[in-house]
C-alpha cells in the first residue's frame, strides 16, 4: 500500500469527498485483500485523522464523517462469515461504555471471516454485560474501548465477575491500550491485541488450550 495512496484517501475523507474516497478504496482493493485494505489503508488514514484532531487542526465533524464513510466502505467488503466453523469456546464481543464502534465492527467481521462464531453485544455498560456473560455462559469476551474512562471500567467488570465466581478470559483492544502498553494488566484483562489479526491469533491460542 503506497503512502501517497493513503495520503490521497485521507485528504478525500477530510474534504468529505465520498466519491473520491470510494474510488481510492476500490483502487486499493484491486491489489490487496479486503482485510489488508482495512488494516493497512483505512486504519492508518483514520489514525492520522485522529492525530490531526488531537493537534486541533481539523474539526470534529471531519473526524465524525471520516469515521462514517469508512464504516460504510468496510461494511461493503468484509465477508459476514465463513461456513466452516471451528470447535471453539462460547464468546462475544462488546464495546464497553463508549461510542467508538468501528474497531469492534472490524474485529467482529475478521473473527467471523476467520471461522469464529461469536455474539455481537453492541454497546453495553458493566452491569448489563455481567448479566449477559453469565446468561450466555461465555468463556471468552472481547472488549473494544477507545476512551480511557471506558478502559478503566474493565476493572469493575472483572471485580463483578470474580464476585460471582465467573471464570472468563478477557481480551481487550483499542486506543488506550495502544497508548499505554501495561494498561491491559492493570484493568484485569488476560491479553491485549493491537489489531483484528491479533484477536484471531489470541483466541485461536486460547481455544486450543480450552479443548
Ligand atoms: C473516529 C473517532 C471518533 C468518531 C467515532 C465514529 C464511530 N462510529 O466509531 C466520533 C467523532 C463519534 C468520536 C467521538 C469522540 N471521541 Co473519538 N476518535 C475517533 C478516532 C479519530 C478514530 C477511531 C477509529 O474509528 N479508528 C479506526 C478503528 C478501525 O480503529 P480502532 O477502533 O483503534 O480499532 C482497531 C484496533 O484498535 C484494534 N481493536 C479495536 N478494538 C479491539 C478489540 C479487541 C479485542 C482487539 C484484539 C483489537 C481491537 O483493531 C481495530 C482494527 O485494526 C480516534 C483516534 C484514535 N487514535 O483511535 C479518536 C479517539 C478515540 N476519540 C477520542 C475522544 C476523546 C472522543 C470524544 C470524547 C470527543 C469529544 N470531545 O466529543 C467523543 C466521545 C464519543 C463517545 N462517548 O464514545 C479520544 C480518546 C482519548 C482517551 N484516551 O480517552 C481519541 C483517542 C482521540 C484522541 N487522541 O484524543 N470519535
Percent of residues in helical segments?
Answer: 55-70%
What is the topology, as strand order, of the major beta sheet? 2-1-3-4-5
Low-confidence stretches: none
Query: What ligands does this structure carry?
Result: cobalamin
The 3D shape can be described as globular
Q: Which structural category fits the helices and strands?
A: alpha/beta
Note the beta-strand portion: 5-15%
Question: Which CATH top level class of the largest domain fits?
Answer: Alpha Beta
Number of strands: 5
Q: What is the topology?
A:
Elements: H1 3-14, H2 18-29, H3 34-55, H4 60-77, E1 91-96, H5 102-113, E2 119-124, H6 126-135, E3 140-144, H7 148-163, E4 169-173, H8 175-179, H9 183-186, E5 191-192, H10 196-210
Bound molecules: cobalamin.
Cobalamin binds next to helix 3, helix 4, helix 5, strand 3 and strand 4.
Verbal overview:
This protein has 211 residues and is an alpha/beta fold. The chain has 2 domains: 3-77, Orthogonal Bundle (Methyltransferase, Methionine Synthase (B12-binding Domains), Chain A, domain 1); 91-210, Rossmann fold, CATH 3.40.50.280. Helix content is 60%, strand content 11%. It has 10 helices and 5 strands. It has helices at 3-14, 18-29, 34-55, 60-77, 102-113, 126-135, 148-163, 175-179, 183-186, 196-210, and strands at 91-96, 119-124, 140-144, 169-173, 191-192. Strands 2-1-3-4-5 form a 5-stranded parallel sheet, sandwiched between helices. Helix 5 (102-113) packs across helix 10 (196-210) and helix 6 (126-135) crosses helix 7 (148-163). The radius of gyration is 18 Å and the shape is globular. Cobalamin binds at residues 39, 43, 46-47, 49-50, 53-54, 60, 63-64, 67, 71, 98-104, 106-107, 142-144, 146-148, 171-176, 193, 195-196, 198-199. Residues 1-89 form the B12-binding N-terminal domain. Residues 87-211 form the B12-binding domain. InterPro entries: Cbl-bd_cap (IPR003759), Cobalamin-bd (IPR006158), Cobalamin-bd_sf (IPR036724), Met_Synthase/Corrinoid (IPR050554), Meth_synthase_dom (IPR036594).
Amino acid at each position: 500500500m503506497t503512502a501517497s495512496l493513503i495520503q490521497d484517501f485521507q485528504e478525500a475523507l477530510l474534504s468529505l469527498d465520498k466519491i473520491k474516497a470510494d474510488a481510492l478504496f476500490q483502487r486499493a482493493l484491486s491489489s490487496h485483500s479486503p482485510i489488508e485494505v482495512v488494516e493497512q489503508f483505512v486504519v492508518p488514514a483514520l489514525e492520522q485523522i485522529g492525530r490531526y484532531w488531537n493537534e486541533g487542526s481539523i474539526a470534529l465533524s471531519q473526524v465524525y464523517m471520516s469515521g462514517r464513510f469508512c464504516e460504510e466502505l468496510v461494511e461493503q467488503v468484509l465477508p459476514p462469515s465463513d461456513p466452516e466453523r471451528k470447535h471453539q469456546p462460547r464468546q462475544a464481543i462488546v464495546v464497553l461504555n463508549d461510542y467508538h464502534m468501528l474497531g469492534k465492527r472490524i474485529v467482529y467481521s475478521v473473527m467471523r471471516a476467520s471461522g469464529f462464531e461469536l455474539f455481537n453485544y453492541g454497546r453495553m455498560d458493566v452491569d448489563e454485560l455481567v448479566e449477559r456473560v453469565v446468561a450466555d455462559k461465555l468463556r471468552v469476551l472481547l472488549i473494544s474501548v477507545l476512551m480511557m474512562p471506558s478502559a478503566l471500567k474493565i476493572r469493575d467488570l472483572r471485580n463483578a465477575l470474580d464476585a460471582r465466581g465467573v471464570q472468563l478470559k478477557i481480551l481487550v483492544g483499542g486506543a488506550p491500550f495502544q497508548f499505554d502498553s501495561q494498561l491491559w494488566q492493570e484493568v484485569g484483562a488476560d491479553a491485549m491485541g493491537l489489531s483484528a489479526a491479533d484477536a484471531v491469533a489470541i483466541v485461536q491460542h486460547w481455544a486450543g488450550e480450552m479443548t
